[in-house]
Amino acid sequence: MNPQDIDIIVGCEESQAITIEFRKRGFNAFSCDLKPCSGGHPEWHLQMDVHKAIEIIKPKAAILHPPCYRLNIRAQYWNKVKNLEKEKQEAIDFFMSCVNANVEFIGTENPVGIMSTIYRKPDQIIQPYWFGDTESKKTCLWLKGFPKLKPTKIVEPVYHISKTGKKYSFNDKIWDKKLRSELRSKTFPGIAEAIAEQWGSFLLNGY
To answer: How far apart are CA 77 and CA 110, in angstroms?
Structure first.
């Protein structure tokens, strides 16, 4: 089998980080998001609901990033305070529609949050510093058919220390909530490369 014969959808990915890495390796990969892409390749971007894209493309594999802002640990306090239970349930339903999508191989990504309890514990929790990036950000992976990712370059994580001595990981030190959320949602380069290289080889080699 040739990589160009394998269709892959990377859902909820406007950055195109993973899509670009798969494309470098010859796969017929598409990013998909309700927003326009910021990765510079609109010709590979499906601006639509990811489930509609799956119906159209019928991919062999999907890497899905359901929105986490109502599912992560930090959100649970505000879900209660601001009475956002309806939005929380919608996020849960969308997550479950991703892990249960009609695709043979699926990797679903989310930070540490309530889905580990509501659904099941993730198959794997990875860190950017396992793959050459110096940031710390636990990322959960729920896998259907895919193997666990193997670390490629373990480095020492770098933390940001505030004037009060508090330790921050990644862009937690950015006080603009919208910007912080956008930056935290993007896939780190090392993880994107590992996904494309390891899962791409897995698909090519007949599993």
So the answer is: 18
